[in-house]
Amino acid sequence: MISQYHHSDEKLWCKIGRYFASREIRAELGGAMSSDDNYHWFIATDKQGEVTGFAAVELKKSGAWFRHSYVFEASRHNGVYGELLKARMSFVKQQDPDACPMITCTATEDSLPSLLKLGFKEIALKGKCHTLRLKF
Description:
The protein is α+β, with helices and mostly antiparallel strands. It contains four helices and seven strands. It has a seven-stranded mixed β-sheet, sandwiched between helices.
């Protein structure tokens, strides 16, 4: 199940607040996570209500940015990333196209195929991080 929260929603921080301090997650993401009033979060949970992954959309003047996509190891390769991606794409498509003309994101080798299938184009490569963009 995917739930959506705005940065200001206290329920968000009860669900994922502790992960912001995780060294393991920071290392896998390549840096610390951030969040402010421009962030909308998507949280995947299993049947028992346990968090299996999360991801954010940051809305900026230049468009949307997909940020901080993370799926816990035990839930990887089970469609969680795809469901988070689908939820974020749906959210962005509901925004005013003039205010949100494109989506930009960084991707690992694991997430790259899913993004390319949706029409994202690679615009840069730095180390193992691919920067992609999808224009509407």
